[in-house]
DNA repair protein RecO
Amino acid sequence: MIYRVEGIVIRSTDYGEGNKIVTLLTDSAGKAGIMARGAKKVRSRHSSLVQPFTHGEFVYFRNAGLGQLNGGEILESNHRLREDLELSAYAAYAAELCDRAFQDDEAGAYLYHQLKACYDALREGKDPSVVIHLFEMKILEAAGYAPQLDVCVGCGSDRGPFRLSAAGGGLLCPRCRHRDSQAFPLEEGALKLLRLFGAIDLRRLGSIQVRPETRQQLKAALRSLMDAHLDLRLKTRGFLDQLERMNEPMPASAAEAAERRRLRAQERAAQEDAPEA
């Protein structure tokens, strides 16, 4: 049977001397694995089409097992996401989430459109950490684990201050916080953003300014929810976390100490280079 789908390459693996096996997240056929024969060769007509993060139209034949790629057209190459190390890390993490969190028939059109919107937002220069945390919320929703963020999951109270219980799947009020000793407090700004993430479609994301403290709480909240309900061990997540740590601004005291060391090194170098009297 011939399939013509719109999709995004979420995984690409070399196979044999010149072939690739790619996994597509599609708008109408869930996840689809297809063989792209000769795609490793530079002159192959399929080599660009099967690059990671490529959004395109794909035509393939499939009876059972892997499909066979017949042709297609690139709609958005997303080459910037591959060429920029930071953007590539975020894009790869989003792709692996889609690949690992859902079976082939569980990945519907909604997930496809959210991933496409995620890549569009990253390419357009929107805050990548905000984009990826919103995408994590969409993953939780699509998997059936959307957290309860309006009222307490224990008693239904709408009176805070609240703590977030990842294991409980939502907020705990002061009277119910004893139910989860691991529940952690959320500042008002972080809670408002989590509620916003649950309410909006990624395709409608505008520009959002987030304070560093709020950013850390968002990350802790979403990661706790993901770990509690999906329990995925993602290679891309470790690399992304390491990259984010490297990009964190240096504390003022550490920056001042580094500047003093630099000035002392310059003074020593100048003394060593000075001519003798």
